[in-house]
From TrEMBL:
Family: Belongs to the peptidase M24B family.
Keyword Transmembrane helix annotated: no
Enzyme Commission no: 3.4.11.-
Bilayer-crossing regions: none
Name of protein: Aminopeptidase P family protein
Enzyme category, top tier: hydrolase
Alphabetically ordered keywords of this record: Aminopeptidase, Hydrolase, Metal-binding, Protease
Residue stretches making up the Creatinase N-terminal domain: 24-146
Listed Gene3D superfamilies: Creatinase/methionine aminopeptidase superfamily, Creatinase/prolidase N-terminal domain
CDD domains: APP
UniProt GO MF annotations: aminopeptidase activity
Residue span(s) of domain Peptidase M24 C-terminal: 547-607
Length: 609
């Protein structure tokens, strides 16, 4: 078992936060005074409502110092707030200047509730119409009206005061092979057009870059960790589609491949493309379509039919080629993770396991495994108290060496040309305490409850979310994030509409891939999370009366037996773990070196031993 050689990395450890919020918010307030506004909304969003955004769209981070993937700053002339969800309630106060910016947990108040309570009568709140959906603007309007104020669409005021703002991305846009996509562009567009006809629409404006990538079998590099080309498409029910891409770096092979189905144009020509929609009923995606798009469609004499882009549901259900790719990617990824876990045990025993060293080693093991295109998100590598920060991102300033008696949590994923992975393992360094073993086993029981679940067709993620929480609830415990998110096929590691969460209202269907990741977080002490990806599949039940579904676990890597308290598991749970570990061994061991195979054999010893 040898360590991989150094190589260029997909992630850095620079601290992207800053302590310039006071001066930058004051600059924004000066711009408010010049425009006659009393406030401005700064969401963590680009014009596609993306999770990962290009550098020129990192307005929230530039203004406040907060670097999380979700949040909204509300800047008024005399007060300001940053609303964040449960993933960031620990991180946000560490990154922003709380003397001028109040961190508000989403569980206590939504942005609209804060506006309703803080905007004064006759005050006007500005917003950028490219960064809000029609429904989002309607919520802002209701909140402002309740307070006796109003809202106004304006050019983005952050851009006006952001000196040195980065240029838009210009990464290459390339073909995603039909063999991996499992369907040609023509076949996909025929399905989309049939859905438009069924919905009574004449055209579709594709505003979600993930849907653009899926529908036209293309991949790009405009944002970090997700192979997206930013842009839009106008797809009529009849005739060729028109793509409007931000990047001009388009592979000639892609132009040739799309020539029969679509014309590729510059993003700057989008207004002309929307102006041609006079008299047309146009489906606009409610989740990612900016209110600016709706207004331009209507100004052209078209009708904006705001609803779900039909591509979203099609993309969520993987075809046979995508499922085969996911399985192959997880075998490759699993071997790399096992090599890493074996290395981690040795590094921890030698006292040289630091958070950054772990990130670098895991990425290098994946690179050595072949076909690594990127990590699927910045690795969460948290030791001891840092593990309790759900979306902790290690920097050179925060890096710490794992100490004996601590837990180490590592949540990571990879982008391969045939699939996207996401896995979390929590590992004991030295002897864990009884409380650690208890909490870990309760999280594991919830994880197993999802993995072993059998449920009728039509069941939503919200209906099974409680399965993962019940063992924690029995001890008066819980976690403040969803149990599972959808995952793409060499696309986003966080893909909708499917999810296992209290908000998961979409029925699960065969072919959907989701994460299974309950957790527990002891603030200031340690964090526990266990994550595998699972595939929804039909499940035959002898003498059953209804069609049923279940999950195939795709991820292949052992759980840390040192943290398992067998007495808390029932016989079925112990049998499932032993069978899963045997599957990990049978699948991965033939491709491992002798030293790593020996480590794996020890790691997966039956729980009865």
């Amino acid at each position: 078992m040898t360590e991989p050689s150094p190589r260029p990395r997909f992630q850095t450890f620079d601290d992207p936060s800053h302590r310039k919020g006071a001066e930058r918010i004051e600059a924004l307030r000066a711009a408010l005074r010049e425009t006659g506004l009393d406030g401005f909304v700064v969401p963590r969003a680009d014009e596609h409502q993306s999770e990962y955004v290009p550098a020129d769209a990192e307005r929230l981070a530039w203004l406040t110092g907060f670097t999380g993937s979700a949040g909204t700053a509300l800047i008024l002339t005399e007060s300001a707030a940053l609303v964040v969800d449960g993933r960031y309630t620990l991180q946000a106060p560490e990154q922003v200047e709380t003397g001028i910016l109040t961190v508000v947990p989403l569980s206590e108040a939504t942005p609209e509730a804060w506006i309703g309570a803080n905007l004064r009568r006759d005050q006007v709140l500005g917003y950028d119409p490219w960064l809000h959906t029609p429904d989002g603007v309607a919520r802002l309007e209701r909140a402002a009206t309740k307070a006796g104020g109003a809202v106004r669409a304006v050019p983005n005021l952050v851009d006006a005061v952001w000196a040195g703002r980065p240029k838009p991305p210009a990464g290459p846009v390339v073909v995603h092979p039909d063999a991996l996509a499992g369907e040609t562009v023509a076949e996909k567009l025929a399905r989309v057009r049939a859905a438009l006809a069924e919905g009574g629409c004449d055209a579709l404006v594709i505003s979600d870059p993930h849907n653009l990538a899926w529908a036209f079998n293309l991949r790009g590099s405009d944002v970090g960790h997700t192979p997206l080309a930013l842009g839009y498409a106008v797809l009529p029910r009849e005739g060729a589609a028109r793509l409007f891409l931000v990047s001009s770096n388009v592979d000639p092979a892609l132009r040739a491949a799309l020539a029969p189905a679509a014309e590729i144009l510059a993003r700057a020509e989008l207004d002309d493309g929307l102006a041609a929609l006079s008299g047309v009923r146009v489906r606009l995606d409610a989740a990612t379509g900016a209110v600016a798009l709706k207004e331009k469609i209507e100004a052209a004499g078209g009708t904006a039919d705001v609803g779900r882009d039909p591509i979203t549901g099609m993309k969520a259900v993987k075809n046979a080629a995508e499922i085969a790719g996911a399985r192959a990617a997880h075998i490759r990824d699993g071997a790399s993770v096992v090599r890493f876990l074996a290395w981690l045990d040795a590094a921890a025993a030698a006292g040289r396991l630091s958070e950054i060293a772990a990130v670098e080693a895991l990425e290098d093991f994946r690179a050595a495994g072949g076909d690594l295109r990127d990590v699927s998100f910045p690795t969460i590598s948290g030791s001891g108290p840092n593990g309790a920060i759900v979306h902790y991102r290690v920097t050179r300033a925060s890096d710490r060496t794992v100490q004996p008696g601590e837990l180490f949590l590592i949540d990571s994923g990879a982008q391969y040309s045939d699939g996207t992975t996401d896995i979390t393992r929590t590992v004991a360094v030295g002897a864990p305490s009884a409380a650690m073993r208890d909490r870990f086993t309760r999280v594991l029981k919830g994880h197993l409850a999802i993995a072993r679940a059998v449920f009728p067709t039509g069941t939503t993620g919200a209906q099974i979310d409680a399965f993962a929480r019940a063992p924690l609830w029995q001890a008066g415990l819980d976690f403040d994030h969803g149990t599972g998110h959808g995952v793409g096929a060499f696309l986003s590691v966080h893909e909708g509409p499917q999810r296992i969460a209290k908000t998961g209202t979409v029925a699960l269907e065969p072919g959907m891939i989701l994460s299974n990741e309950p957790g527990y977080y002891a603030r200031g002490a340690y964090g526990i999370r266990i994550e595998n990806l699972v595939l929804v599949e039909p499940r035959a039940i002898a003498d059953g009366e209804r069609p049923m579904l279940g999950f195939e676990t795709l991820t292949l890597a052992p759980y840390d037996r040192r943290l398992i308290e067998p007495d808390l598991l029932d016989p079925g749970e112990r049998a499932w773990i032993d069978a899963y570990h045997e599957r990990v061994r049978a699948t991965l061991a033939p491709g491992l070196d002798a030293e790593t195979r020996a480590w794996l054999e020890r790691a997966i010893a039956p729980l009865s031993d």
